[in-house]
Amino acid sequence: MTKHRLFWPAVVLAVLLLANLAFTPDFFAIRIKDGHLYGSLIDILHFGAPLVLVALGMTLVIATGGIDLSVGSTVAIAGALACLHISEAADPASPGTVVASVAIALAVALVLGVANGVLVARVGVQPIIATLILMVAGRGVAQLVTGGQIITVTSGPYRLIGGGYWLAVPFAVLLAVVVVLLTALLTRRTALGLLLESVGGNPVASRLVGIRASGLIALVYVFSALCAAVAGLMISSNVSSADGNNAGLWIELDAILAVVVGGTSLTGGRFSLGGTVLGALIIQALSTTIYTIGIPPETTLVFKAFVVITVCLIQSPAFRAKAVRRRSSATRSARPRPLKTEEAEA
Amino acid sequence: MPAQSAQQPVLEVRGIRKEFPGVVALDGVDFRLFPGEVHALMGENGAGKSTLIKVLTGVHPSDGGEVVLDGRPVRIAGPLQAQLAGISTVYQEVNLCPNLSVAENILIGREPRRFGLVHWSELRRRAAESVADLDLDIDVSAPLDSYSTAVQQLVAIVRAVEVSAKVLILDEPTSSLDREEVRQLFAVMRRLRDQGVAILFVSHFLDQVYEICDRMTVLLGGRLEGEYLTGELRQVDLVARMIGGEPSDPGEPSDSARREPAEGADAPPFLRADGLARSGAIEPYDLTIRSGEVVGLAGLLGSGRTEAARLLFGADHSTRGSVRIEGAEVSLRTPRTAISHGIAFCPEDRKTEGLIGELTVRENIVLALQAARGWTRPLSGTRQDEIALHWIRALGIRPGNPEALVRNLSGGNQQKVLLARWLITDPKLLILDEPTRGIDVGAKAEIQKLVADLAGDGMSVLFISAELEEVLRLCHRVGVLRDRRLVAELPNDGSLTPESIMATIASGAQS
């Protein structure tokens, strides 16, 4: 069972949640308040939903051996565009306005994704550089959209995306579940997953086997941008405002961490969507833990970094083998040496 | 046994076991190596030779058994520990820094120092000394890449024995060397042997094994088959023991494959290249391949064989010339276009250009077919299993587990996976670049037979090999390359011999 890919991420998540129980006795309690599910676990799912989406897109990008640093900026741009459209509309609360604002955000994200994809797949810019451009420039674009201000909106339907509930469950969680399932179907029920893993695992061989890699690679950057846009809508909807400066700030790093913690290698190839979901939840649970156990704010990042590196080491079979070997060799050297020579001569 | 039996083995392995996910690579293997002998490690691909070497050199930790060095049980935790313990290895691919000087390559990591800095003159003196020790004439201050692969290999050996190695492991050292270079290598090996170094020699060239080795250990399917004195085991018997069957001559079964061009000169050409060239890679050449015909390309390493073939697959762009397939001119811009015209290509370097190591056997087999269908038209899981199991059985791929990771398979089985990948696409022209290189006799004979059968069914084959006997056995016509130029096209009408091909390569003229 320990050989299953999801074993270690699941163990880490369980340990993290159990650790919270020691500090917060009612950590696992889930109540229904005003017809909504309510509790720490629900909070982790709710606030983790945007990260799950961003990490999902990141997983496919990383599977091809690339990386997408621009997702944080895309989050900000998507939120800013949607909020701008709603705030300028005559009737901010009408469903039509909200649908249009979502459409605008997704359409622009599509363009941004195509831009990344073309830079990487056609022009041949290294992914880290290609997406760094949009990471830096995108923040500027987002601020341009919001005019450097925080745009606040009051729109019931828009609030539903990130802050609302449906059937007692946070709508964002449902949305994330649907996207995860669709992505799983898309990659594992078609041959997309296999071809992506092939391109990431060995680009030279993939070309010689006749895989049209550039189209696939462009596709994953578009997918990543769309996921980031949905995440951006959730985040801005949840706070009913768009902040070009801080929305989705550093989310690309959390997303990369989630992918790695979930067991997908940064060098490309095999990817695990389930692992990424667990990874994103681990990162979110960690952030929650930091608040609930009262780590001083100035040391939270150090604490987070420490936990993440520990998690990565625990998951590495090479590291575990080394740790076990070290322990067993310590016991062995306690044995008297002559015994071994006797064995050798026997 | 000679005097050796009175001696203590320098290296002894007892009951060693190594498992990979889905594969038992070594199952309780015993092995002894005496000082001052050249010992061959023989076995088919997948017999466990490479794994045994990797265990001995600390690349893979063993899962059981023990290694005894100089009478003491040792635990080899990594390549560095192996070197410190006196076990040095030279691999098939030279693992040195081509841009550094020979002297630096020999002593890198253990440079003589003075006042904390590298003592350059001492470094050169020591390097020159170790080179002279082996009777070699190499300028140690020249950069390594100014020398041929063969000399680089010798430098790797000098480096390996410079650390007072007791055991020297040579893994396929001769596969890219010509005859004269092999002779030079053997001279060095004999000299080291006389100095008391134990040499473990792995090679697929039986003649070389019989020329240089004193004893041999044969592995079969991850187990020890036996240990023999070279003089007491006939080649035929050795082959039988390697493949685990009755003694038979390995060359014979596929000799029947050599046929007169059955559909012959009047069969319509499947592919015709006119003045096809790529500057810097291959001079303009004309080549016609008919349906059901096996055309060989012979020539030395680097003569342009691979380069010529890559143009026909669209792996590289041609800079001039044209290609006609079934009479119609085509532009082979990418492998994808070539594949759509029914061309398949098994590249020489299986690991970097052929297989996706972290994917399974099944996934690797269906990959070309799936790529041609595009990602929106997936092969169903059951269909994939059917295909994979069918070809695993048809080609005898071991282990027979479609979910095994392809990188854990041996070279010969990896080659079969590649063949299966292309055969399910039902190609009209199959380009095989060194398909039998570095694989054992058993798999080699199987692949040769397969090629003959496929051609018999009407498939065209372009067969590239450095082994002239193999080319002669399989091909209807042989194109000879020299210095990036197709210099001759010889019909294999029975009068062609390895010697006459070599003469053509050497003279560069039509014979």
UniProtKB/TrEMBL annotation, chain A:
Its main location: membrane. InterPro entries: ABC_transp_permease. It is found in: Cell membrane. It comes from the Bacteria. Keywords: Cell membrane, Membrane, Sugar transport, Transmembrane, Transmembrane helix, Transport. It is a multi-pass membrane protein. Pfam families: BPD_transp_2. The chain crosses the membrane at residues 37-62, 69-87, 99-121, 128-151, 163-186, 216-235, 247-266, 273-295, 301-319. This is Simple sugar transport system permease protein.
TrEMBL record, chain B:
It comes from Kitasatospora paracochleata. Residues 243-271 are annotated as: Disordered. One of its GO terms (molecular function) is ATP binding. Gene3D superfamilies: P-loop containing nucleotide triphosphate hydrolases (3.40.50.300). This is Simple sugar transport system ATP-binding protein. It comes from the Bacteria. Keywords: ATP-binding, Nucleotide-binding, Repeat, Sugar transport, Transport. Residues 11-246, 265-508 form the ABC transporter domain.
